[in-house]
Amino acid sequence: MSIHRTAVVEEGATIGADVVVGPFAYIAAGATIGDGCQIGPHVTIYGFTTLGAASKVHAGAVLGDLPQDFGFEDGESFVRIGEGCVIREGVTVHRGSKPGTETVIGNRCMLMAFSHFAHNVQLEDDVIVANGALIAGYVLVGARAFISGNVAVHQFVRIGRLVMLGGGAMISKDVPPFCTVRPAMENGVGGLNVIGMRRAGIGAEDRSAVKAAFKLLYCTGLNVSQAQEQLAEMFIDGPGREMHDFVSESKRGICGCSIV
Asked: Running DSSP on this structure, what letter comes out for residue 205?
């Protein structure tokens, strides 16, 4: 363990083996830092925050501060960050808004500079969020999604697995799995993340199923309810069924199609 002489680590913080804490960092009582973490200069980690092993937090990040929610009335809520994450300069991750709730960042996520994660956000594993993206409260982000720079995501939105959001996109409706949203587009799906699916090991047959589901959902003129019925008949499992289930569970409605 290496803690810089100017850092403040309060009694009651739990610090794992081989942790490095940089100058002027602050780790509050009740925080838990996993083995092998690197905490950069001027990082602030409040209590009720757990940082998984082998994660790196760069200068000026703030983890576990109070939620920016007028409904917050104090009490124990949490931030839980997985293993192997990279959290860059100035990132903010806030605690859950209600007692006993949590904000969760999965394993191996990369949160780039000055991105923000509000109360009760949940990121699954291997999510990448680029600089300046703003993720509002209760947003759910599926595994291996890519959120580009300066994207803004409205509260309670769901972002499906392997979604790619283009830079500056404005999202207030759910984005189905495997889809892309064009840069600077508002709620407009522009196609499929085919490269991402290949990199994730999704085979040709399953990619074809996703393409068929996408076409049915967005390119046939059917309304969402009609498309859901046909998707249910076409797919009993696999990625095609995943798209059906995601759409069926949507409460905000899904993004429309921006293909011209």
From this structure: H
Q: What confidence category does residue 199 fall into, taking pLDDT thresholds of 50, 70 and 90?
A: very high
Residue 110, helix vs strand vs coil: strand
Tally of domains in the chain: 2
- pLDDT tens for 220-246 read 999 999 999 999 999 999 999 999 999
Q: Which of 107, 122, 138 is the last residue of a domain?
A: 138
pLDDT category of residue 260 using cuts at 50, 70 and 90: low
d(CA 83, CA 36) in angstroms, rounded, equals 10
Q: What is the pLDDT of residue 259?
A: 75
Does 76 fall in a domain? yes
- 35 plus 130 within the same structural domain: yes
Task: Tell me, yes or no, whether 6 and 131 share the same domain.
Answer: yes
Whether 105 contacts 80, CB under 8 Å: yes
CA distance 81 to 73: 23
Does the predicted TM-score (pTM) go above 0.85? yes
Distance CA 151, CA 134 (A): 6
Q: Are 16 and 117 in a shared domain?
A: yes
Domain boundary among 138, 172, 206: 138
CA 84/CA 68 separation, integer angstroms: 27
Q: What is the domain range of residue 6? A: 2-138
- Considering the domain architecture, whether residues 133 and 203 belong to the same structural domain is answered as no
Q: Which two tokens stand for residue 102?
A: 């949590």
Asked if the structure places residue 174 within a domain, the reply is no
pLDDT tens-digit series, residues 77-134: 999 999 999 999 999 999 999 999 999 999 999 999 999 999 999 999 999 999 999 9
CA angle 60, 20, 105 (to 5 degrees): 60
